[in-house]
Amino acid sequence: MDRSQTRTTVAAVCRSGRTVGITTSLWGAGGFGKTTLASAVCASRRVRRRFRSRIYSFTIGRDVRGRTAVAAKVTEVTRFITGDTKPFEDPDLAGAHLGRLLDKRSRTLLVLDDVWEHEQLAPFLRGGRRCVRLVTTRNPNLLPPGAHRIQVDQMSYAQARAVLTWNLPDLPKALVRNLVLATGRWALLLRLTNSLIAEQCASGAEPAAATEQILHRLRDSGPAAVDDPTATWNLDDPGQRNQAVKASIEAATTLLPPSGPDRFTELGIFAEDESIPIPVVALLWQASGGLTEIQTRTLCRDMERLSLVGLDPANGGTLSLHDVVRDYLRNAFGTAGLARVNGLLIDTIAATLPTAPPLAPDHPSPERAWWQLTTGYLLDHLIDHFLAAGRIPLAEAVAGDIRWVQARLTQRGPTAPWSDLTGIDTARTRTLARGLAQTAHLLSPTEPRHALIGVLHNRLDTHPH
Ligand SMILES: Nc1ncnc2c1ncn2[C@@H]1O[C@H](COP(=O)(O)OP(=O)(O)O)[C@@H](O)[C@H]1O
Ligand SMILES: [Mg+2]
After folding, report:
1. Domains of the chain, first to last
2. Exposure check for the chain: N or C terminus, fewer CB within 10 A?
3. Which ligand neighbours the alpha carbon of 38 most closely?
């Protein structure tokens, strides 16, 4: 559904050499269509003509917190765009380095999706004279002075109606109107509601009756008197946003097969803003619900039809979860539930790997050869899953094991094993991270691999554990 803001943003991106920010007026609220708008801008003909193949999109997200993590993100972006792998501990130095490299390149569009804090953005604004930054954020205050701001809030009535009735048979006007009001013209909710009605119609339900049903559901759990047809959500209020999402998701999950709602909730353990490989989901669901990979794929498809998840069939299939939906799932689960399911995932993965002895008798045991994992998602987030399961000693043992460091180094470059260590933040990992950082200048890709590993062994082994 095209929005007027698409044209405004395309014009701003093509005309100005400045930063362009897509924001909401509601602080902290997601699901209004910022990411969708940014993608539409990148896909537009005018933008592609202007920037050619030099359009790069990165999601920052809430989880990139603290100087170390921000520096690692900047390094990752630098590596992706320029191939340069120079590691930095300091986000400002990392940003200045990226800026210098961008200065040497022709016109570039850098999309930074879902920025939460000023500290996450500042390093990306340095240098890069011919680089336009397109930033999406729920926090308009973090945009630099002079940035061109584009507001994306509730949809207009006509847009909302178009999203709500997309691909549906004709519905009574008054019913559509009431449902548009009941969704608060919130893009995320409109899409969920549309899919819910479409899915019921596809199996022969009477369209008006199905629509009536979801309208009641939204109203019953709604913010105002049930008998007030014009009652709408106050989307400024996080409590009401949660309630609105809860009503729609619960309505949608009733259409899943019997154990579907539980399996769906379990998806809340996966990392935010990440594509989750379906084979990894299959491992989890095999352990939690006895599902085969084929059943997992079928269930993922059911969830996609209801717009509960996004599904990309490329690379063996990946799922994506909007953070508003993920937040809902995590709340529904609670900390203990999340820890339990994270533990289940870890144990299931462990069972696929050979056992591994500690490097020396006095070294902590990693238990399994985690470094033999080949799935990017698992290598990137294994340590997070250990921590979420409360398995701190295991996290320490793996992140501090030279075999893991080597695997991460090869996979993502020097900042990855260092970020793994700093994410754990215990006395032991702090020491190891320092040791690794002191070695970082030696970890250039030109260094022969065996020499590098030798250096690392030396560094990590001579540090007191
Ligand atoms: N222009 C649009 N047309 C149709 N659906 C949209 C549009 N914008 C957003 N949506 C729906 O709303 C959901 C949330 O949008 P998204 O862009 O992810 O929001 P945000 O980035 O603001 O959190 C999307 O998954 C999509 O289903
Ligand atoms: Mg977004």
Report:
1. 4-151 (3.40.50.300), 157-253 (no CATH), 260-343 (1.10.10.10), 353-461 (no CATH)
2. C
3. 1
